[in-house]
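sorry for the late reply, my laptop died twice this morning and i had to redo everyting from scratch. anyway the thing you sent over, i finally got around to it. pasting the sequence first so we're on the same page, its 162 residues, then the predicted structure underneath. double check i copied it right bc i was rushing
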Amino acid sequence: MPQGPGNKDSNTIEQPRVIDFNEVRAQKLDEKRRTTERIFFKHLLNVYSVMGHTSMVPIEFIDISEEGCSFQIPYDPEKPWAVESTEIPLRIYFSQDTYLEIRVNVQNSRPSIENNRRYVRYGCKVNTSTSSYAAYQQFVKFLRAYSENAHKDLGDVSIFYL
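ok and here's the structure:
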């Protein structure tokens, strides 16, 4: 007897699907956190890597955590980014003349394309033994709390200047 779309094969037992709302909520919060971090890094902070004690190279943070971070730099075959040092200082500028320095060790790198531009992405482990690590750790905690509680400005409230 032919099976129609509404008929079920008697040999197939359909398992009920259980959705773990905590897992779904955690995934949504992680997506929101990453998006918030990217916006925060692109528009409010400037991040540089110090190369050789004489110059700074702008980098773009992709993601940060208390243990590590990932960032990208534009790919330039004429001037490849040197990763020969075991520990790389990164400066996170909160204003034009103040920064928080963290030190990282590159664990991996890979090519990336974003908005039709070539980049090299680096995954790093943060050195937790530096004196600035406690401030960095609090900064990461702030970003996590901010991303969980931030709201998108929809322009629904007028601003009046007195």
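The CA atoms of residues 102 and 131 lie 9 Å apart.
thats about all i looked at so far, will dig more tmrw
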